[in-house]
Amino acid sequence: MSGQRTTASDPYFPASGDPRYRVHRYEIALDYRPGPNRLAGTARLSAIAGRAQLTDFALDLADFKVGRVQVNGRAPHYSHRGGKLRIRPAKPLPAGAAFTVEVHWSGNPKPVRSPWGGLGWEELTDGALVASQPVGAPSWYPCNDRPADKASYLLSVNTPSAYAVVAGGRLLTRTTKSSTTTWVYEQTAPTSSYLVGLSIGMYQTVLLGDPGLGGVPQSAHVPAHLLPNFSRDFARQPAMMRLFEELFGPYPLGEYAVVVADEELDVPVEAQGLSLFGTNHVDGVRGSERLIAHELAHQWFGNSVTIADWRHIWLNEGFAKYAEWLWSERSGGRTAHELALAAHRLLASQPQDLVLADPGRKLMFDDRLYQRGGLAVHAIRCALGDGAFFRMLRDWAGVHRHGVVTTASFAAHVARYAAEPLDTLLTSWLHQPSLPPLPAPPRDVVPGGTGGMP
Predict the structure, then answer these.
(1) Residue positions in the annotated binding site for Zn(2+)?
(2) Overall pTM surpassing 0.85 (yes/no)
(3) Does the keyword Cytoplasm apply (predicted)?
């Protein structure tokens, strides 16, 4: 596992997170009433101070009423404004010391504002969901909101019994008392705050694949009226899982769930062990199958192998885009090279002002980043050949499983699999805005077939 933790603020979101400490576990208990959209919560954070004594520290939390705060069981001084809960413990915390923080909060959760619209907690017509990328997690719980600070989670949600609660991780218990039910999930894998997923709605639960065959447990939570279309659209997800385990290595989590919210969503959203789709992604003719592949691939690239800060987002999206092309290639559709040629033609006709390795906050979700990221991965495949490329890919996901990475660490990793230096290729694709020509594939990357893929 990679241990590449950063001690600097995120250059794209310098107000988010506090790099002076890290959290290794969150224990969160929520009570949610969908009608009035009322949330009350308690969070206990187990954390470790960094290399310097902490006389104060901060958590990210949106505009809730804060009822109580404790540090190591004692009341600290604190202030809460501008999305920051600033805490001054009664006694300074020594460098490297373990400490606990307890926060009680309540209010009406709503998305936090961003250049991309509301992020985080979203009230639906009947229920709620969480889609926090990149900085929406404080819309519903207090956290150290930086992708490199990964922790385990225990999440308890109490809500009216008519609703199902779906979260990433293993469902430990579901307990009904009178008209409410408490759902308790645990995610033991190190998880970034933006990847803590949650959905509350009227869902039917179905299993995908055959768990008796020893594969990854896969479940789906779907409005009843969408089940016929869903069964066709997601029928090949178990085959995707098998292919991605073959190409990327073992699935890095204990289980995988998909939720279809009973509303349209602009785009599907990945969370740790969980992906969220909208009604518009379920059409009965597999019209969104590439997105099913994309979100599944994020469980390796982005969720397990996590970027140190948001400059490196192409490492999430470029690999997930390339996974779409690999699925197409292996499932009888267009080959990755054919799809790369089409993407290259598209990008050649568009402005070339995006630097993949540091796109800037304004362009970090630009569709060109996704396409160019996929093209960069394909260019590396063409340069290495399939044998070395797929070894490189599996090792990248394996060596950095549940770790934190950067573009520089990826370039160093790729270099180990190259027969000759790739500095010029990597510089042109990752660090220069102009679109390089697409390399011709070597003989083992066959444009008309599966080539040397394992």
Answers:
(1) 294, 298, 317
(2) yes
(3) yes
